[in-house]
Amino acid sequence: MFQMTDDQRDIQNLAREFAEKEVAPIAAEIDVDGHFPQDTVDKLADLGFMGLCVPEEYGGVGLDSVAEALVVMELAKVCASTAVICSLHYMVSDIILEKGTEEQKENYLSRASEGKLGCFCLTEPGAGTDAGGLKTTAVKDGDSYILNGTKCFITNAGPEQGDHFVVFALTDPEKKTHGGITAFLVDRDNPGLSIGKTEDKLGIRASKTSEVILEDCRVSEDAILGEIGEGFKIAMWGLDGGRIGIAAQAAGIAQGALAEAVNYANERVQFGKPLSKNQGLQWYIADMATRTEAARLLVLEAAQKRADRDADAGCTAAMAKLFAGEAACYVTDLALQIHGGYGFIKEYPIERMYRDARITRIYEGTSEAQKMVISRAVLR
Ligand code: COS
């Protein structure tokens, strides 16, 4: 059973204070403009939030997955875009911390802690849920590798965003997911790496999502992350952690939407009494609150298991992602319904929350992909 430590409570309070003071006031504006909140990222880095799990020796604050989940949840209550920027960045740092050489850790984790953003480049136009179907190749040439391919839907990659990229590529096309994929750490300024189209999205509009194009992108052997052929396992292990981040984002959106619905239901008077005096609405609120709390607890349970390196951590992460994503959509939908016509206009934050929630059932593995991961683990 999850028990929060004093350190975790402190980080949660600090994140909540920051979210309310620095993020909430600009959330609507950056959503409308699709404006990347660089100032916010810089401030988060100054407070240590961009290197939460990075050990102090590499410039971070040395906390764990639970702290990451708590921070993402607090940010997502007020701004899902800011939350996902952090969540993806944490996933990349966690992978480098787990698999990087000493040199890679010194180089990339110190940059990450300064707020230079990491990107996870797995998905391709033809390889989404079937992540192992990727086509990007890495061909050995002397003591370097030449990467060719196109990655899509890459969070934190934008015209001006993205510092380092974990790129998954085929080194042995015949072996595919069973030893044929290798992970590489590629710098933004590496010749041959460029940013393609940046997507215009329904939600999380202030975070950048772009194509990453690799054209005869030559990297040295030092860019290999982990072992040759270990890439698919690294990607899956990374996603086990990343899914907790997205689940935390979803649980945070649900918490934010529930709070908005409660405020509105208490204030809005129809038929001579506040909406909240109607039993039909009270039952909505009860269902919303129960699913929100269940999502929050499952996120924290998954994060604790990840920190403890529990053998079930990946399965619990998939459960958290599945449940919290579905809960976020359910809760934002009812919260909008409670707002009536006012929920449909941009003056109220619920309109944005409703749009932002939708992606949490899709990225870092759709709800259907989570069911594949869960059922495989349970049936094993
Ligand atoms: N951690 C470590 N290793 C893992 C792993 C995990 N969580 N999951 C699988 N592996 C290993 C397997 O053990 C297997 O290793 P061996 O080669 O030693 O046998 C290897 O990886 C291949 O696994 P598997 O055969 O299960 O691969 P599949 O192609 O069948 O994978 C799923 C299927 C659905 C699990 C995978 O493709 C998936 O998670 N898809 C969703 C992808 C996703 O989330 N995309 C979003 C990207 S970010 S927006």
Structural class: alpha+beta
Bound small-molecule species: coenzyme a persulfide
Unreliable stretches (pLDDT < 50, length at least 5) are none
Tally the helices: what do you get? 10
Strand order of the largest sheet: 1-4-5-8
**How many domains, in number, for the residues?**
3
Mean pLDDT across the residues is 98
Instruction: Look at the structure and name the CATH superfamily of the largest domain.
Output: Butyryl-CoA Dehydrogenase, subunit A, domain 3
Look at the structure and give the CATH class of the largest domain. Answer: Mainly Alpha
Order of helices and strands: HHHHHEEEEEEEEHEEHHHH
Shape: globular
Number of strands: 10
The CATH topology of the largest domain is: Butyryl-CoA Dehydrogenase, subunit A, domain 3
Question: What oligomeric arrangement do these chains adopt?
Answer: single chain
- How much strand content do the residues show? 15-25%
Calculate Rg over CA atoms. Answer: 21 Å
Protein topology:
Layout: H1 6-33, H2 38-46, H3 65-78, H4 80-99, H5 102-113, E1 118-121, E2 137-141, E3 144-155, E4 164-170, E5 181-187, E6 193-198, E7 209-220, E8 224-225, H6 231-267, E9 269-270, E10 273-274, H7 279-308, H8 313-339, H9 350-358, H10 367-379
Parallel strand pairs: 1-4
Antiparallel strand pairs: 2-3, 3-7, 4-5, 5-8, 6-7, 9-10
Bound molecules: coenzyme a persulfide (COS).
Residues 122-123, 129-132, 153, 177-179, 232-233, 236-237, 239-240, 314, 363-365, 369, 372-373 line the site of coenzyme a persulfide.
